[in-house]
Amino acid sequence: MNGKPILPAMLLSMLAACGGAPPEDTGAAMEAEDFEHGPNNGRMLRDGDFAIELAVFEAGVPPEFRAWATRGGRALDPREVDLSVTLTRLGNRVDQHRFQAQADFLRGSALVYEPHSFAVSVDAAHDRRSYRWDYDNFEGRTRISPEMAEAFGLATGIAGPAVIEEAVTLYGRIMPDTDRVRAVSARFNGAILSVHVMPGEAVSEGQLLASVESNESLQSYPINAPISGVVTERIANPGEQTAGRQLFTIVDTSSVWAELAVFPGDRERIQLGSQVIVTPASGGARQAGAISYLDVFSAANQSVSARVVLDNSDGSLTPGTFVTAEVRVAEYEVPLAVRRIALQTFRDFTVVYAQIGDEYEVRMLELGRTSGDWVEVLGGLDPGTRYVTENSFVLKADIEKSGAAHDH
User: Fold this and answer.
1) What is the pLDDT of residues 378-408, one digit of tens each?
2) Residue 208 above 90 pLDDT?
3) Residue 391: what are its φ and ψ, rounded to 5°?
4) Which residues of 257-286 are buried (b: 16+ CB within 10 A; e: fewer)?
5) Which residues, other chains included, contact 52 with Cβ-Cβ below 8 Å and sequence gap of 6+?
6) What's the CA gap between 145 and 358, in Å, rounded?
7) DSSP-H helix ranges across 33-169
8) What are phi and psi of 72, to 5 degrees?
């Protein structure tokens, strides 16, 4: 789904305005309802004088089901009770949990993995009688119609492989390209008759800079600009003697250098030819380049200078400006990654929102390496899952509005 982004405040107002309508139309989040808690902080399931307390236990162990059976308020021997739990997750994925007696409780046979969001069916048998309970335990789940999703600007993508680029951040500043700097002096010493340019003035190659009368021939000759560029220095005034000195400095800034400081911890990872993205600290367009020079001597602060040649034909890079540079030092193809912009928080987890039909639900992620727009996923998400890539904060706001629940 694609849609134009809408301002967050407007989106939240739309969600609030829909608060009283049925969830199918509004995107109201579906969460676990209130229930009776037992002495082990589990959910009490009663049928006459028979009861099961069912809890998700995760103190020092991966989440698992534990259950306690009573009749008439008195604890039953767990060996006398048959118990099974069926969890139906979003997308009709079914998990079966069998139970075995352990000490004074029944222990589930499988991991109750996150999210703890499912329709629950509990089957129990004791003393030749059978019992069944069905209830919903939803968390981090919401339903939004396609029309509302489009209005909210939700966009989705498929989780799959991606290329993760590992980068090192360097800092430096823009410097003139010394190959494009010219110190201009007179060919023959003599008196300066006239000067035709001012500091800061742009000049073209061959343009007249000054006229000089030779002390030997008493003939006048022109001093012309050897390159196109900007006059950054003028040390010449009419009536003065040239005296063999430098009269003008012209700098062509159509190409500049990003001089970057590479400290010892990063030196082995920076190579000639390493690809670089340079960003001016003052803002402006990012530029791509490559390391073209690495100094062989360290500066006083133990850093080594690295150089990137950048096109500056538009004049956007001013020498002296500070820059940040991301230097690509490694590249990995990972089997599963998601867009960085898709990440949200839910409880103590970093999540994305999986989409199945009109329903959206959190997927708790175990993350690996991060690079630019991508984050590697090590666990918590199946390859091929459709997930929300843009404006996922709308789902987070909708779920938080309803009040998150976690049934243990």
Assistant:
1) 999 999 999 999 999 999 998 888 754 444 4
2) yes
3) 60, 35
4) bbbbbbeeebeeebeeebbbbbebeeeeee
5) 44, 45, 67, 68, 69, 81, 83, 122, 124, 131, 133
6) 6
7) 146-151
8) 60, 25
The answer to whether residues 243 and 273 touch, using CB atoms and an 8 Å cutoff, is no
pLDDT digits (tens, 9 = 90+) for 279-299: 999 888 899 999 999 999 999
- Calculate mean pLDDT across residues 193-214: 97
Can you read off the two tokens belonging to residue 400? 């938080």
Decide which of 198 and 13 is more confident.
Answer: 198
Chain centroid to Cα 20, Å, comes to 35
Residue with tokens 């959190």: 362
Give residue 403's pLDDT: 59
pTM value surpassing 0.90:
no
Nearest by Cα to 277 from 297, 262, 258:
258
Q: What pLDDT score was predicted for residue 263?
A: 95
- In contact, 407 and 168? CB cutoff 8 Å: no
Domain boundaries, given as residue ranges, for the chain: 33-137, 178-251
Asked whether the beta carbons of 351 and 338 are under 8 A apart, the reply is no
Give every CB contact of residue 258 below 8 A, 6+ residues apart in sequence: 172, 173, 174, 175, 276, 278, 289, 307, 308, 310, 323, 325
pLDDT of residue 26: 38
pLDDT in tens, 236-247: 999 999 999 999
Q: Three-class SS of residue 13? A: helix
Instruction: Please tell me which residue, 13 or 233, carries the higher pLDDT value.
Output: 233
DSSP-derived letter for residue 194 is E
Handedness of CA 196, 197, 202, 205 (dihedral sign): positive
Q: What are phi and psi of 159, to 5 degrees?
A: -70, 130
pLDDT at 245: 95
For the structural domain made of 178-251, what CATH number should be given? 2.40.50.100
What are the DSSP calls for 267-313, one per residue? HTT--TT-EEEEEETT----EEEEEEEEEEEE-TTS-EEEEEEEE-T
- Give the CATH fold of the 33-137 domain: Immunoglobulin-like (2.60.40)
Percent above pLDDT 90 for the chain? 83
Q: Which residues of 121-140 are buried (b: 16+ CB within 10 A; e: fewer)?
A: ebebebeeeebebeeebbbb
Bond into 115 cis (ω within 30): yes
